[in-house]
Specification:
Distance between the termini of chain A: 53 Å
Shape of chain A: globular
Distance between the termini of chain B: 83 Å
Oligomer: heterodimer
Largest sheet of chain A: 5 strands, mixed
Number of helices of chain B: 1
Structural class of chain B: mainly beta
Largest interface: A-B, 19 and 25 residues
Number of strands of chain B: 7
Radius of gyration of chain A: 24 Å
Helix content of chain B: under 10%
Order of helices and strands of chain B: HEEEEEEE
Helix content of chain A: 25-40%
Strand content of chain A: 15-25%
Number of helices of chain A: 13
Order of helices and strands of chain A: EHEEHHEHEEHEHEHHHHEHEEHEEHE
Strand order of the largest sheet of chain A: 5-6-1-7-8
Radius of gyration of chain B: 33 Å
Largest sheet of chain B: 7 strands, antiparallel
Shape of chain B: rod-shaped
Number of strands of chain A: 14
Structural class of chain A: alpha+beta
């Protein structure tokens, strides 16, 4: 059976999440800043229209923000993650074949639904909006690559009203002409530059290029892109997402950290968080890397990392913290103003398939029981148990000064209505 | 003193005897006649939340709905997937403000009614920016 793909993409996802719980923001320019309140990571259409670019440092657009009364928010990842899962759950009622592609995008396979795809797309859009408050755009086509293009055009076109079906559409060529080659899915910037050099500037020109030549020049991925643009499906839905390859916890500090103690506190705190994440997914790590960095823009900038191999893969926070602190001791340099540190766990294996070591003298059953107990106590919203190594004051910790409430995950931050 | 080894006995592995291993303890007594009738426990969350993806919890501020048994500090279970019917209690957006009121529809006219005499009903006109945010399905009131 021929495949029919719908790409459902949330419009300005983070900004839209804020609007669901704060309807006053409707029609107003909204931006969301990165973890550090440093860069713009999401913009409402009104903010885009003011010329606020994606990823620009907040201080560069401070004037525009002040003059236009732009509403500014710190990232509220707890809220965004919950809203994402609500959107995905709503979408999975429309087809059993769904691939969650990112926090705000999903591919749906609509093959076998004998109806007008556009009507079905409208129903999806209406339902997601009503159930979750999230505005979405739906692009429908015979391949994932074309569905991506359909979605992009639907976002910009007022006539599409949020849904564009490019299966056997007379509009298909027009859609491909107006899509620059660098906007095609899987085409990277370097590839785009090379393509343009030989006169391939649009998706249409790429589609009509000689596949043999593309294959020689850009390999099998390039050839697949050409086939996909021709409507021959090369990428199916990935329904069993591969096991996570690594878990990273890293944060920029509120202000540069120079003391060894504080740096250790931060690393211990990230290691503890990484351990929680491991156990949530029933994984254990074989390798841990700790990295530290100063600002890149100062004279004596310094970056370094240290990697530890565990004899036995572990998800025991005690072990993670001990090793993280030991790594920091080696990485620390007096006088350096550290801007950020992070913990990366790799060599992940399911926790029930850990390769034991004959000379291991740790009581792993007992540790596992302790971790389970701590996780259970911390399962609520305010995490009463913390490791002493994480410090008490945590002066390095970022303040999310403009973060909205975590409306859906914290009892004491619910939406209030009179 | 020395110990001498006289003979070494090798085990006979030609025959197999299978033995069932019981890990559970065997209670000495009559088996529970109720075990056959065991059912799932009652879970309040399942009872109150029919559409998890569309259900939000909202905290009440103020006393405008006190007549409907909705008090300040109460928790409302709000289902966005439901269509409001006449007399539903809803969370509505009126000119950008969220409010909880009783939804009345009569002769195609919508009014939002409080349940407290010190507040006035609000008629929705063409100039009102109005939207139903969700339908309130339960009130959780702490005693």
């Amino acid at each position: 059976m021929k495949q029919i793909f719908a790409l459902v993409d949330c419009n300005n996802f983070y900004a839209s999440c804020e609007r669901v719980f704060n309807p006053k923001l409707e029609g107003r320019p909204v931006v969301v800043l990165s973890n550090n309140d440093g860069c713009v990571v999401a913009r409402s259409n009104e903010a885009k229209a003011l010329g606020i670019g994606m990823g620009v440092p907040a201080f560069e657009v401070a004037d525009i923000i002040r003059k236009n009364h732009v509403e500014v928010f710190s990232s509220n990842y707890a809220l965004y993650a919950d809203m994402s899962s609500r959107v995905m759950e709503t979408l999975s009622a429309f087809t059993p074949d769904i691939e969650i592609y990112s926090i705000d995008e999903a591919f749906l396979n609509l093959a076998g639904f004998g109806c007008s795809w556009t009507d079905y797309g409208r129903k999806i859009r209406r339902t997601v909006r009503k159930w979750t408050g999230m505005p979405v755009t739906v692009g429908i086509a015979r391949t994932k690559t074309l569905a991506k293009i359909a979605n992009k055009i639907a976002k910009k076109s007022a006539g599409a009203n949020g849904v564009l079906d490019l299966t056997d559409s007379a509009y298909l060529n027009k859609a491909l002409v107006q899509t620059p080659v660098e906007k095609v899915w899987t085409v990277g910037i370097k590839t785009a530059i090379k393509l343009k050099r030989v006169g391939i500037k649009t998706a249409l020109e790429l589609r009509d290029a000689d596949v043999g030549w593309i294959r020689r020049k850009f390999g099998v991925v390039g050839a697949r892109t050409v086939y996909e643009l021709r409507g021959n499906c090369c990428y199916r839905l990935e329904r069993n997402p591969p096991l996570k390859k690594s878990i990273m916890v890293s944060r920029t500090f509120a202000k540069p950290v120079e003391s060894l103690e504080k740096l250790k506190e931060a690393a211990a705190s990230y290691a503890a968080r990484a351990g929680e994440k491991l156990r949530q997914e029933n994984l254990a790590a074989g390798v841990m890397t700790v990295f530290v960095t100063t600002s890149r823009f100062i004279k004596k900038s310094y970056f370094n990392s240290h990697t530890v191999l565990f004899d036995v893969a572990t998800n025991n926070t005690i072990e993670l913290i001990q090793n993280a602190c030991a790594s920091i001791e080696r990485l620390y340099r007096k006088g350096a103003a550290f801007k950020k540190c992070g913990v990366v766990l790799g060599g992940l294996v399911p926790e029930n398939r850990i390769q034991r070591n004959l000379f291991d003298n740790v009581d792993r059953e007992k540790c596992a029981r302790l971790m389970r107990t701590i996780d259970a106590v911390n399962a609520g919203s305010n995490c009463p148990l913390r490791w002493a190594a994480e410090g008490i004051n945590q002066t390095w910790k970022l303040k999310f000064q403009r973060r909205s409430r975590r409306y859906t995950t914290h009892w004491d931050e619910l939406l209030e209505v009179a | 003193m020395r110990t001498k080894v006289r003979t070494i006995h090798t085990p006979d592995v030609s025959k197999r005897q299978e033995v069932l291993l019981f890990e559970a303890t065997v209670p000495a007594g009559f088996p529970s006649p109720a075990a056959d009738y065991e059912e799932d426990k009652l879970v309040l969350n399942k009872h109150l939340v029919k559409h998890p993806a569309a259900t939000f919890f909202v905290r009440v501020a103020g006393d405008s709905m006190i007549g409907a048994g909705i008090h300040a500090g109460d928790l409302l279970v709000v289902d966005r997937s439901l269509e409001p019917r006449n007399k539903s209690v809803v969370i509505a957006v009126v000119n950008g403000e969220l409010t909880v009121k009783r939804f009345r529809i009569h002769n195609n006219k919508i009014t939002l009614e409080p349940e407290n005499e010190s507040y006035c009903a609000l008629e929705i006109t063409e100039d009102t920016r109005f939207e139903v945010w969700g339908v309130v399905t339960s009130v959780i009131h702490k005693l």
